[in-house]
Amino acid sequence: MTELDPTKQPSTVDIRSGGDVILSSMSVVSGGYGGVEVAALRVTSAWRMLILNCDFRITETDADAGQIDVTAIDTGRRADILMINSTASGGLVRTPTTLSLGMKIWEETHTLVIGSRVEGGQAIDASPYAAAVAAYTIRGPAPDVTIINSVLNGGEAAQSNGIILAYAALLQLVNSDVWADSIDCFYYWGWSVCWPNPSTLNQTSIFVTEAVGNFSLDPQFTDDLGHLAETSPCVDAGTDPDVYLGEFSDWSNWLGVDVAELIAHDRDGDPRPHGPAWDIGPDEWTPQ
Ligand SMILES: [Ca+2]
């Protein structure tokens, strides 16, 4: 376990070298002042990146000016990203024109999120947006984002969003719990369209390739790592993610990991599924 917990300066795990990267059982808590964009994990260049059983979070930042984003995980461009049983949590920001994001996903990326918890933070003092996930395209091929068995929390802001899709980003959302403390919304930036709940996604956009089995309910977490209460609506509400692995199923050739084996356990190492179905989030509920 690696832990970084600065109080004066923002800290970032910054992946710049390219190549294949495995981040496993890593906890990074970042906060403090940042004159540039703040992230707990920033990927500038990577080919393939596995984020397994990790916890990236922003606590609080007082970044003071300009168009900055505060993001727990910034995936960078041109990467294949697989996130399993992990947490990305945006923090408290006080600056106007700032977004508080769980994950920022850029163009030319393929991203698959399984059994994770991704949440925006709290944006106050006229900050307009918070979101669990924002996927952007500037000039390259649009990113495609698949999210399965995960909890997305939009956070708190004038407009809090489950997911922001900007300029042709593609979304596949399956058996996930999307909720927000204030407005629950999917926002398509190019058209300024706000979809009020996950059940409306497929009906309104060519940018949503699939949206099934999703709902908006309090997941009833019992701690910051996403353990579930027995009464949580996320218990047995997931689906078998194996059928969604696609190109990620052959990563044993590249990273030496058996992805099918990794997704068969929760972040505590407990087997999935327990009971009739997979649970949603990093934890598979089991009786103590
Ligand atoms: Ca279960």
Write the SSE topology:
Blueprint: E1 2-4, E2 13-15, E3 20-24, E4 26-32, E5 38-43, E6 48-52, E7 55-61, E8 69-74, E9 80-84, E10 87-89, E11 92-93, E12 99-105, E13 110-114, E14 117-119, E15 122-123, E16 129-135, E17 144-148, E18 151-153, E19 159-165, E20 170-174, E21 177-179, E22 186-188, E23 193-195, H1 201-204, E24 208-212, H2 259-262
Parallel strand pairs: 1-4, 2-5, 3-6, 4-7, 5-8, 6-9, 7-10, 7-11, 8-12, 9-13, 10-14, 11-15, 12-16, 13-17, 14-18, 16-19, 17-20, 18-21, 19-22, 20-24
Antiparallel strand pairs: 22-23
The structure holds calcium ion.
Calcium ion binds at residues 235-236, 273-275, 277-279, 284.
What's the CATH topology name? Pectate Lyase C-like
What count of helical segments does DSSP give?
A: 2
Regarding CATH, which class?
Mainly Beta
Q: What is the percent of helical residues?
A: under 10%
| Distinct small-molecule ligands in the complex | calcium ion
Keywords summarizing the entry:
mainly beta; Pectate Lyase C-like; 288 residues; 9-stranded parallel beta sheet; 2 helices
Question: How would you describe what is shown here?
Answer:
By secondary structure, the protein is mostly beta strands. The strands form three sheets. Strands 1, 4, 7, 10, 11, 14, 15, 18 and 21 form a nine-stranded parallel β-sheet that branches. Strands 2-5-8-12-16-19-22-23 form an eight-stranded mixed β-sheet, with no helix packed on it. A seven-stranded parallel β-sheet has the order 3-6-9-13-17-20-24. Helix content is 3%, strand content 38%. The chain contains two helices and 24 strands. The radius of gyration is 17 Å and the shape is globular. The chain has one domain (2-217): Pectate Lyase C-like (3 Solenoid). Calcium ion is lined by residues 235-236, 273-275, 277-279, 284.
